[in-house]
Amino acid sequence: MTDARLTALDSELAIVFPGTWATIPLHDEEAARRRVARLVTERVGRADRLARTRRTVRDELDKLVALAIDSDAFALALSMEILPGVPFPASIVMGREKWPDGSSGSVQERLAAAFPAGDPLDLSFGPARRASSVRQTRYEEQSAPELLADYRFAAPDESCVIHVRVNAPMAVEPELYLELFDAIVDSISFRPPLERPAELR
After folding, report:
1. I want to staple 24 with a disulfide (CB 3.0 to 4.6 A). Which of 10, 57, 76, 94 is the partner?
2. Which domain of life does the UniProt lineage start with (predicted)?
């Protein structure tokens, strides 16, 4: 894979995406709709015969954006290509969650207690839990495996849990896809939060 790039998803977190990805602004619904419309036109094309395809893709992406906003996510990224000319449909949504009441112990112990169904991972930034599943989804006249994966790990100050939700339709080799997303999540890096101006403190 080529063209892996470090992408800042908010003021404190960055990630390395392989291939071509697009980020969608979630702080402004109108800006998100404009970004989706522009992406659909760029990827699908402007030809009249593609109008139905553009509408279908736009509606699906608008639903994804709405779900991300409703869940108070802070980042949404859409995969376009894994290599030039090689489509790779996938989405990553990131949000913050509260620790369950009564959570105590080390980060690893707290994650295991809160998300017992997940597999333990030892990532570059610390322990994480990953729960994944594969389901058959129908696309037009054929069906294909769809990979769903949920990664959870502690924020650097341990004040909350960061939840990374991966959705990869048409994941014809789910195990390989999962290895790729493990590596993408492992690339996450954190930066110190920006200092607030004195007049805002």
Report:
1. 76
2. Bacteria
